From TrEMBL, chains A, B, C:
HAMAP family: DNApol_clamp_arch. One of its GO terms (molecular function) is DNA polymerase processivity factor activity. Pfam families: PCNA_N. This is DNA polymerase sliding clamp. GO terms for biological process: leading strand elongation; regulation of DNA replication. Residues 1-28 are annotated as: Disordered. Sliding clamp subunit that acts as a moving platform for DNA processing. Responsible for tethering the catalytic subunit of DNA polymerase and other proteins to DNA during high-speed replication. Belongs to the PCNA family. It comes from the Archaea. InterPro entries: DNA_clamp_sf (IPR046938), Pr_cel_nuc_antig (IPR000730), Pr_cel_nuc_antig_N (IPR022648). Homotrimer. The subunits circularize to form a toroid; DNA passes through its center. Replication factor C (RFC) is required to load the toroid on the DNA. Keywords: DNA replication, DNA-binding. It comes from Halobaculum magnesiiphilum. The keyword DNA-binding applies.
Amino acid sequence: MPEASAVTDEGDETDAESGQTPDFDGEVPVSVRVRADTLKPLLSAVGALVDECRLTFGRDGIRAAAMDPATVAAVDAELDAAAAASYEADGTVVGVDVTRLEDILSMAAGDDPVTLALDPESFRLHVVADGLEYAMGLFDPDSVRGPPDVDDLGFEHTASLTVPVDMVGRFVTAAGMVADHLALSVDPDAETFVAAADGDTDDVQFTVTAEEAVAFSPGDAGSLLSLSYLIDIERAIPAGTDVRLTLGRKAPLGVAYDISGGDGRVEAFVAPRLKAV
Amino acid sequence: MPEASAVTDEGDETDAESGQTPDFDGEVPVSVRVRADTLKPLLSAVGALVDECRLTFGRDGIRAAAMDPATVAAVDAELDAAAAASYEADGTVVGVDVTRLEDILSMAAGDDPVTLALDPESFRLHVVADGLEYAMGLFDPDSVRGPPDVDDLGFEHTASLTVPVDMVGRFVTAAGMVADHLALSVDPDAETFVAAADGDTDDVQFTVTAEEAVAFSPGDAGSLLSLSYLIDIERAIPAGTDVRLTLGRKAPLGVAYDISGGDGRVEAFVAPRLKAV
Amino acid sequence: MPEASAVTDEGDETDAESGQTPDFDGEVPVSVRVRADTLKPLLSAVGALVDECRLTFGRDGIRAAAMDPATVAAVDAELDAAAAASYEADGTVVGVDVTRLEDILSMAAGDDPVTLALDPESFRLHVVADGLEYAMGLFDPDSVRGPPDVDDLGFEHTASLTVPVDMVGRFVTAAGMVADHLALSVDPDAETFVAAADGDTDDVQFTVTAEEAVAFSPGDAGSLLSLSYLIDIERAIPAGTDVRLTLGRKAPLGVAYDISGGDGRVEAFVAPRLKAV
């Protein structure tokens, strides 16, 4: 997740075909035709944390990245060009109101093809679906907070497990009944993952064994997390999705999953809390 | 839509059978037996604009008419006597709390026959359905604002089209995302209907071609309308209904549709705005 | 419904097996395994009136009893040990947050077996379901208002009828449209039950004949009741349940029904009002 400071994410490269540095009014116009329900999971993932995000129409696909205002959680989502019925773009980066874009797409039937086209003159994104044309104003991408580069942060992850999203939903819901934080840990000897929340009078604990997980890579890990970010991230995950949780010792939690039948990927991170308040 | 000033809508006629001027305690008692779901669309159409309306139990059917408090929109709805399992009335006009009457009918199953009977002594409408008898207080119809006579207003309509109600729903929803008003126009050369709304940063436009419409009678037409009235009117239209939109040059919009399988009709009007604020 | 002043409901008996007075840390640990949807109707019935109640884990089953804060309505609910997949208890009485316990059970699928186990050391109830363990803090049962003994109150009931719960729902909903109270009466000559509510302008009346009732035992009866308690009690009754209403002359209304396929029983009472305000 590079800290984008320019309007292109490939600013140090030249466009192979045009021989020019691609920018907003480059030679290749941005024009994407994609089913509404193919695009929605990418937007939902980012919209869970922010209202405004950077959207990159790269040569190989769309990328959305954001960090929440409190800089506790970040998300990076990609959708391959192959997921679209037709795809033309060269790396233009724009700032969009992601909630608004979700609302517009919700007016299209799930299997409706939606066309997204950038109008460089008016700096607007045209969303066209079945008789409806919506021209959405864009932001300067530099005015939108981008996520930090995850690799630069040097997280040391020691354990991971893959579970169905409804299992994640169960433990965040249960934890929310007693507290606003949640301790996630992996016991390498017992080969179990434990989500635990302590309230004033009530405690709750959710255990996943290696056998119950889709995949389990044990290791010594344990972090305390603010629940609200996890709740938001979990809500954006499509039903039936397998989710990979990555943990460390007082390290951020990673939440990764595929979208759009494998033609896209979401990776979210939640920074640990030092202690419960 | 005559401005009713008396308690009968046929006050200048005499009752053929009784030889008397029909009034609230006339010779023919009002007694109507009708399915709850047959009566509901008439009430919904009027309830979309007002809480209280005039209800006329005419010899040939029930008529409800109302104008909204700001006198921007009016509605006139009729249900033929043939839609009822049994029907007896002679032109009595009463003022009813239409929201309350909708609530009462919502307690009856859709295919339940409901009996409406006027009690002239207590000035109440008795609604009887499956063990339940509800006696609803009535208003003096003169105390309820009636709609103006549409013919007197001399609207000059120049174009019309018929579209499924869900198409109307799409463009009022889309317009509501960016503005509180909506421009409707017909391009006679292109043979298209366009609904357009301009917001501060975003614009939305919905186009219906002659081919996409159920029926299309082109002509030069264009009006600016307050969105809230259109939203209320559209919500009251039963799913699957074809709606006829009538337009002029800065003239009111007409919204007309059949109810109860053709045994009733609704006609609504929304006055144009001079300009967007 | 005895006014429980001790932590056991069988405090005057000795435990046959252990030879000791059973108490919270008795020889027989409380451990119940039961489907979530088997336990829910008992909790719903009590939760309709109170947030906190006394829960008795008796030798033959679970009993929950409560009186609302205004001491107008009381409820007593039982679930036989036979309704549970496994059952071990000796009469321990605890105070529970019934709303919280309902929330916890709502996280289990209806046909999930849930295990309830008392931890006498931490004075908490452990609820275990499919990976999730919730430790719920308990109250001193003496701190929770128990219901009065119904037999001591000497109600003289003169009439009763059994009707489907949706019939009760219809008349409480209809009455709620016009008033906050409701008169229930039985006419022994006409063999009818009448629920009537008088509002400022509107009246509503619901009549059940002996033929329409599942069972009818006529007698002179009539009471005025606050509607809100009836609404709360009715909402907690599972769909499709037959409800037995017991009436007297200015006597409390009894509302009794079976839960969990006959393996449990609920009995609620609502004290009459002297007059409508």
